[in-house]
Design goal:
Blueprint (H helix, E strand, L loop, with lengths): L2 E3 L1 E3 L2 E3 L6 E6 L4 E7 L3 H17 L1 H4 L2 H17 L1 H12 L3 H22 L14 E9 L2 E5 L5 H14 L3 E5 L6 H12 L7 E3 L4 H9 L6 E5 L2 H12 L5 E4 L5 E4 L5 H13 L11 E5 L3 H14 L18 H16 L3 E4 L16 E4 L6 H4 L6 E7 L2 H9 L3 E2 L1 E5 L3 H10 L4 E4 L14 E2 L2 E2 L12 E9 L4
Parallel strand pairs: 1-5, 7-8, 7-10, 8-9, 10-11, 12-13, 12-18, 13-16, 15-16, 18-19
Antiparallel strand pairs: 2-3, 4-5, 6-22, 11-21, 14-15, 17-20
Helix pairs in contact: 1-8, 3-5, 3-7, 4-5, 4-7, 5-6, 10-11
């Protein structure tokens, strides 16, 4: 039975003012699995007003930081109780295999919430060095109303990257989920409501980017926008936010280099490089989509890598044995097919994959794909495909690897495979990326800041650093002179 979902505004479930709804499609089957309210600008106004009221005069503002942290920790415990349910909803929503939602996505999401629950009472100012006739100190204060616009590849996790630090710092929030994956976020806020988060602190407006997203990004009473998504959309978000000079944090696209040297532990490099591109069907901003392999081990590495890619089980995301699920939509499948055709036209060699999976069932499945004979100037090596397509490029030495790896408009992440400690440190310093993994790939930690450089965006999510994006510094000057 198809479920129906309303907007969540000021602690209440309400229809869109226009009465409009839209269909949410399960990418594993191609079938509608939910009918969702479609928010417009008027609904965003309602949500922002509720968030503003909750911030300015609600119990959230009066609550001690320790009590805020306890509430967030209660929400985390409630999520553990509902972890299997949330995993199933997430897999139906975005196609991530259930084994990955249960073992990776949901635990990582809850870990983030627990991390920031513990930081809620640790937001601190400083006492400044001052002459005896005055006292100077700083306060770290919440910004106010946060607008969070989140993508479809990891809806719950990337929502939590914004929601948890924003609330821990004392802000309120309006969340605009991706139109492709609204359901899991709507289920999530039910759990926060159950544990007693005050009305108006969390609001969710489901709808489309050009209407609800635009209205939120340009709203004069939103104090900050936090966005994860494509670089193109990030540019539009910045333009909209600039009208009111509100701060923006952007975690955008990538074309991340994954560099394998001839002294690497080959088996682990093969396995984790495959994980780095095929995890979540390649729909990962930090995916290792440019695989650089040193000439002296190229043939040996590629034999093993192709065998690994061919062994990946593609299928129903709710099947425990599935290793790679569907792409998010028919539209996205066509985009990937377009890039495959461009790669062939420009002279790359398609080694495996490059086509939809032949299945009797419906759904948006694509095969693990490997391109060889790729040069760094080809379209498939320069533009973000956001699918299970890897471009393999040979390199000679460290200098050659660095030049090729940094020859991109992006700078989100990079991987290095070597057992030479000095080389690892040299490469880590030389790579222009927000995260550099050495002898692993695509791993995250709640305590470790994540974000990009160049057109991969700016600002850092996760870690204590993220709290800086949801607070502002106030300087207080007290005159101690008697006269």
């Amino acid at each position: 039975m198809v479920k129906k979902y309303q907007l969540f505004i000021d602690g209440k479930w309400v229809d869109a003012i226009s009465g409009k709804t839209f269909e949410s499609v399960n990418p594993g089957s191609g079938e509608v699995h939910a009918i969702v309210a479609e928010a417009g600008a008027d609904d965003v106004n309602r949500a922002v007003r509720a968030a503003r009221k909750a911030f300015e005069s609600g119990p959230w503002t009066k609550m001690t930081p320790s009590d805020r942290g306890r509430l967030l920790y209660k929400a985390a415990q409630k999520m553990w109780e509902k972890a299997d349910f949330l995993a199933e909803v997430e897999s139906q929503d975005n196609g991530l295999p259930i084994s990955d939602t249960k073992s990776i996505a949901i635990p990582a999401t809850i870990d983030v919430l627990e991390f920031y629950a513990g930081l809620a009472n640790k937001v601190q100012g400083e006492t400044l060095a001052s002459p005896n006739n005055r006292f100077n100190y700083t306060l770290r204060e919440p910004l106010g109303v946060i607008g969070a616009i989140v993508p479809w590849n990891f809806p719950l996790m990337l929502t939590m990257w914004k929601l948890a630090p924003a609330l821990a710092a004392g802000n309120t929030i309006v969340i605009k989920p991706a139109e492709q994956t609204p359901v899991s976020i709507l289920e999530l806020v039910k759990l926060f409501q159950e544990v007693g988060i005050p009305d108006g602190v969390i609001n969710v407006v489901t709808g489309f980017g050009e209407t609800a997203g635009q209205a939120l990004a340009s709203h004069p009473d939103v104090d900050k926008i936090a966005f994860t998504g494509s670089t193109k959309t990030g540019q539009l978000i910045m333009q909209a936010a600039s009208k009111n000079l509100k701060p923006v944090s952007l975690e955008l696209g990538g074309k991340s280099p994954n560099i394998v040297f001839d002294d690497a532990s080959l088996e682990k490099a093969v396995n984790m490089s495959a994980f780095g591109i095929y995890f979540a069907q390649g729909q990962v901003c930090a995916a290792g989509s440019r695989l650089f392999v040193q000439e002296s081990i190229y043939d040996k590495f590629m034999d093993l890598f192709i065998k690994k890619a061919n062994s990946i089980r593609v299928g129903n995301p709710l099947d425990q044995s599935t290793e790679m699920g569907p792409q998010i939509s028919e539209e996205h499948l066509k985009k990937i097919e377009h890039y495959v055709a461009v790669g062939l036209d420009e002279g790359a060699r398609l080694t495996i994959g490059g086509k939809r999976l032949n299945k009797e069932a419906n759904g948006y499945y694509f095969t693990p794909t490997v391109f060889e004979n790729v040069t760094n100037d080809m379209t498939i090596a320069r533009e973000e495909i956001f699918g299970p397509v890897v471009s393999v490029i040979k390199f000679k030495d460290e200098e050659d690897a660095l030049i090729k790896a940094n020859d991109t408009i992006y700078g989100l992440a990079a991987g290095i495979w070597t057992n030479n400690l000095k080389r690892a440190h040299r490469m880590a310093r030389g790579l222009k990326a927000g995260t550099v993994w050495v002898n692993t790939y695509s791993l995250l930690d709640s305590a470790a800041p994540f974000g990009g450089t160049k057109q991969s965006g700016f600002g850092r999510e996760l870690g204590v650093q993220a709290m800086e994006m949801y607070t502002q510094t106030k300087h207080v000057w007290i005159d101690l002179n008697e006269n």
